[in-house]
């Protein structure tokens, strides 16, 4: 569509048409549901409802990193540094193919203690398994064969011989639906785990730019637009936190003397 729009603008600028056709070629608006995050109690009930530790590790990592299902499917041990406590999102599994991330940019996620714990617990299931050779597709590039050690593999948890090499998005949806059914919490889609990550961080007064970067957004305008109601405009707790940070920087060392104090001293 972008190429077609450019062609139409060329036609307009060079007098081939008097109509503003490029303005009529608009991208279709994708229908998205509003964030409906899980409470901490709901999520803990979902963890308890997991029938395999690897499934609990997966949903824990998703809710504490904001990773998309396709990113979780393509995550490999080569992307993880438990010493530096970071995780790199460099590929996604979608439509049966390994591709570059949605924004076509590699991003690094800083891991919180629960995320680190989930990855440490997952090591015994997949870290020492043989490498898997996959084809990595790039934009306008020939697919490149790479070897990876996936973090999550259906073969380690499946009870029969019918499973895919990697978790498909549909498989994660079904897995999550079963977890929610057993936990008896109100059903929301697995993508709400990503929304929950954003909402939890915003209600904890996390830095907006940092959260946006963790989630892979180009800027924080989308974060404000989608999660605005979780961002308090005024908060005594936030004001106190900011002042404590300023105090630590020395702002309270030379506080200005009030006029009445000067008169009193005189």
Structure description:
The protein is an alpha+beta fold and 266 residues long. The chain is built from 12 helices and 7 strands. The chain has helices at residues 2-13, 21-24, 40-48, 53-65, 69-73, 113-126, 169-183, 192-203, 208-215, 221-227, 236-248, 259-265; strands at 80-81, 86-89, 92-94, 97-99, 107-110, 132-138, 141-148. The strands form 2 sheets. The chain has a 4-stranded mixed beta sheet. Strands 1-2-5 form a 3-stranded antiparallel beta sheet. The longest helix is centred in the middle third of the chain and has 15 residues, at 169-183. The mean pLDDT is 85.
Which strands sit side by side, in order, in the main sheet? 3-4-6-7
Approximate shape: globular
Number of strands: 7
Q: What gap, in angstroms, lies between the N and C termini? A: 76 Å
Mean pLDDT, as a whole number? 85
The share of residues in helices is 40-55%
What sequence of helices (H) and strands (E) makes up the elements?
Answer: HHHHHEEEEEHEEHHHHHH
Secondary-structure-derived class: alpha+beta
Poorly predicted tracts of residues = none
Q: Please, how many helices?
A: 12
Biggest β-sheet, characterized?
4 strands, mixed
Taking all Cα atoms into account, the compactness measure Rg is: 24 Å
How large is the share of residues in beta strands?
Answer: 5-15%
């Amino acid at each position: 569509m972008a190429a077609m729009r450019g062609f139409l603008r060329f036609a307009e600028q060079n007098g081939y048409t008097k109509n503003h056709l490029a303005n009529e070629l608009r991208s279709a608006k994708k229908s998205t549901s509003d964030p409906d995050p899980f409470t901490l109690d709901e999520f803990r009930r979902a963890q308890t409802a997991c029938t395999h530790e690897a499934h609990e590790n997966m949903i824990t990592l998703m809710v504490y990193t904001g990773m998309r299902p396709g990113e979780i499917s393509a995550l490999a041990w080569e992307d993880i540094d438990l010493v530096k406590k970071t995780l790199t999102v460099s590929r996604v599994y979608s439509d049966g193919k390994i591709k570059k991330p949605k924004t076509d940019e590699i991003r690094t996620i800083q891991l919180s203690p629960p995320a680190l714990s989930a990855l440490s617990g997952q090591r015994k299931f997949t870290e020492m398994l043989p490498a898997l050779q996959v084809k990595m597709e790039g934009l306008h590039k020939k697919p490149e064969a790479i070897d990876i050690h996936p973090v999550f593999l259906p073969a380690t948890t499946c009870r029969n011989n019918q499973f895919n090499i990697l978790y498909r998005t549909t498989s994660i949806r079904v897995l999550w639906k079963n977890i929610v059914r057993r936990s008896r919490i109100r059903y929301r889609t697995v993508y709400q785990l990503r929304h929950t990550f954003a909402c939890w961080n915003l209600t904890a007064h996390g830095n907006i730019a940092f959260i946006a970067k963790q989630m892979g957004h180009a800027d924080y305008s989308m974060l404000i637009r989608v999660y605005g109601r979780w961002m308090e405009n005024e908060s005594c707790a936030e004001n106190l936190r900011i002042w404590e940070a300023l105090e630590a920087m020395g702002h309270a060392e030379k506080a200005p003397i009030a006029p009445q104090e000067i008169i009193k001293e005189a």
